[in-house]
TrEMBL record:
Name of the protein in question: 13531_t:CDS:1
One GO BP annotation of this record: methylation
Cross-referenced Pfam families: DNA_methylase (PF00145)
Domain of life: Eukaryota
Keywords: Methyltransferase, S-adenosyl-L-methionine, Transferase
GO molecular function: methyltransferase activity
Species name: Funneliformis geosporum
The UniProt record lists the keyword Zinc: no
UniProt KW Transcription keyword: no
Length: 218
């Protein structure tokens, strides 16, 4: 994921994680790990390397059984919650886990086909007709009900410019997040490209970061 290097590097520099090193960490260092939940986890490609910098993805949610099974194979210690995030039971399971385990980081990588410009020439009307484009609002509901320190959202660039119906108007995702969370969180949305972060791929992505005002994340 394009924004990952930036985000994780800066989490690291917050000194929360600076002493965590695989295989050598002490009990105290282990406890200083940041706990995260991965929504729309797929098989967990976006989770790769997070462990190396002290982020433990303690739970994940994925709709498709096969992807979830593969995720479990790759990350056997993480709790996989299989099912549709819009299903009340599934949502409650994620919520309860986040609160009980005092999870600090939420990673959100919703389906992007609905917003992508690849293959089809979609207009705004078609985008709004696709229910999967509204899954982000379940993640927003989770943010409202929990107390995450850091939230990272990744998607295709168009995700930042499309307008969603919100409070009798049309607003971009960033505008909605600012309206809901700017009292508590710094909010930054950018288009970043994987090629600028040491990845041999020309892959522009929308990266939105929310972080509690007492923290920095540069
Ligand atoms: C863009 S992919 C995420 C890829 C993932 N970040 C990775 O690294 O493999 C979005 C994922 O969301 C899942 N998904 C779609 N609708 C969902 C829903 N209603 N509830 C939970 N997961 C869903 C898809 O099956 C897909 O694996």
């Amino acid at each position: 994921m394009a924004g990952l290097k930036i985000s994780t590097t800066s989490l690291y520099s917050n000194n929360l994680l600076s002493k965590v090193k695989d295989n050598t960490h002490t009990q105290r260092e282990r406890e200083s790990k940041i706990k995260g939940i991965s929504l729309f986890s797929g098989v967990g490609v976006s989770n790769a390397y997070l462990k190396d910098i002290g982020i433990e993805i303690v739970a994940a949610n994925e709709l498709l059984e096969k992807r979830a099974e593969f995720y479990k194979h790759l990350y056997p210690k993480s709790n996989m919650i299989i099912g549709d995030i819009r299903d009340e039971k599934v949502f409650k399971q994620i919520l309860t886990f986040a609160i009980k385990e005092k999870v600090q980081l939420l990673l959100i990588t919703p389906p992007c086909q609905g917003f992508s410009l690849i293959g089809k020439n979609k207009n705004e009307e078609q985008i709004l007709a696709d229910e999967s484009n509204f899954l982000i609002f379940k993640a927003i509901e989770l943010i409202e009900k929990c107390d995450f320190d850091y939230i990272l959202i990744e998607n295709v660039p168009r995700f930042l410019t499309v307008s969603f119906p919100y409070k009798s108007a049309f607003k971009s995702l960033t505008e909605i997040l600012v309206d809901k969370f700017s009292n508590e969180y710094h909010i930054e949305g950018n288009i970043l490209n994987a090629r600028d972060y040491g990845v041999p791929q020309n892959r522009p992505r929308a990266i939105v970061k929310l972080y509690k005002k007492k923290y920095s994340w540069s």
